[in-house]
Amino acid sequence: MDFNVDKDGYYGEFGGAYIPEILYSNVKNLRDSYLENMNDPEFRKEFDSLMKDYVGRPSPLYLAKRLSEKYGAKIYLKREDLNHTGAHKINNTIGQILLARRMGKTRIIAETGAGQHGVATATVCALMDMKCIVYMGETDIARQSLNVFKMEMLGAEVIPVTSGNKTLKDATNEAIRDWCCNPSDTHYIIGSVVGPHPYPDMVTRFQSVISEEIKKQLQEKEGRDYPDYLIACVGGGSNAAGTFYHYLNDGRVKLIAVEAAGLGVDTEETAATIHLGKTGIIHGSKTYIMQTEDGQIIEPYSISAGLDYPGIGPLHANLADKKRAKVFAATDDEALEAAMELTTLEGIIPALESSHALAAFPKMKFKKDDVVVLTVSGRGDKDMDTYVNAIKNNKI
Ligand SMILES: *Cc1c(COP(=O)(O)O)cnc(C)c1O
């Protein structure tokens, strides 16, 4: 079975491009040109050079000795937390802005929830001298003021969104509306492997630099270029897609995705889309969605702002549906505990999103020789308020 996208933009029954008429030519232009551009050696050279000298790649593959001892396997951490701007998101925004420039676009729009994708987009817009508009829900603006300041300092205009719950889903709707009104000069940089085809495939390919490096680094360290397990957290699913990409069709490698259970998958306060979602269409893509009986989107909840998207990338919906990936759900408390564990055992304070991936370890049973690679998608600086509160309340 091939787990990559097919020629129509589908992963099994998921994906596609369910878009309004007015966006048709925009999306078609992108679909017709993204592969040609990405495969052009000149494009590749520029992308690789920025990955190396601007982002700081390759990111290290670190053998975590004390963590390995604790869980009885050989555990490597793929250190996306060490990238410029502190997470994997910059891999995608660099790729997309190079593509936008080649397509003659001069204006960039983006949506952001916690502000991480907004900051990564504002960063590359400063780098490339492009106009940058970021849509962000009013609720999120109030919660994430530091990231709002960063975006503005980088020269972006942050537009507050006041519709709906004033969070990520509403910001995405506004960004799509903007794109409809400005089809010729504007490129919409989506921050994860979601949205209409070709976005899920395009973002996966830009993030696939992660598994490309894992292959090389494992070959050097282990004398074989594949692990027994790959583990990553999933919000929309871009760091996981990048981690899995070169192993999607390699049956020797077990794929583990961890979504956010919030207060628990059996509560109302959760973001466990794959566990609880039903098939539907969100933001141009057919996938699992958290929705009510009559199709209203349920607002997701997680302690981690980067994981509370009510949908999931179609690649992951298919991996779960076909049982190619095993999906765990980690609660807020499990993630906090895992963050503390990595901090005390390895001296690495992870992002709360990444902590959900780490929370898979206590749920798993390894053989002593198993080689495990877990992607640490980001660093914990942005989550210090949450960690401080958890410590004050004796939660960790
Ligand atoms: C945004 C974010 C995520 C979730 O996004 P994916 O597309 O699922 O990778 C995970 N980790 C960090 C650090 C993030 O900033």
Number of strands: 14
Provide the structure class: alpha/beta
Output the radius of gyration.
19 Å
- What is the strand arrangement across the widest sheet? 3-4-14-9-10-13
Rounded to the nearest angstrom, the distance between the terminal CA atoms is: 43 Å
Morphology call: globular
Name the poorly predicted regions: none
Helix content: 40-55%
What oligomeric assembly is this protein in?
A: single chain
Keywords:
18% strand, 16 helices, 396 residues, 6-stranded mixed β-sheet, binds pyridoxal-5'-phosphate, alpha/beta, 4-stranded parallel β-sheet
Can you offer a commentary on this structure?
With 396 residues, this protein is of the alpha/beta class. Helix content is 42%, strand content 18%. It is built from 16 helices and 14 strands. It has helices at residues 24-39, 41-55, 65-71, 89-102, 116-128, 138-143, 145-153, 168-181, 199-207, 209-222, 238-244, 273-276, 314-321, 332-346, 352-358, 384-392, and strands spanning 10-11, 14-15, 61-63, 74-79, 107-112, 131-137, 157-161, 186-188, 229-233, 254-262, 278-282, 285-289, 325-331, 371-376. It has a 6-stranded mixed β-sheet with strand order 3-4-14-9-10-13, sandwiched between helices. The protein has a 4-stranded parallel β-sheet with strand order 7-6-5-8, sandwiched between helices. A hairpin with a 2-residue loop joins strand 11 (278-282) and strand 12. Helix 2 (41-55) packs antiparallel against helix 4, helix 10 crosses helix 11 and helix 14 (332-346) crosses helix 15 (352-358). The longest helix has 16 residues, at 24-39. The protein is globular and about 55 Å long. Pyridoxal-5'-phosphate is lined by residues 87, 89, 116, 192, 233-239, 306-307, 351, 353-354, 377-378.
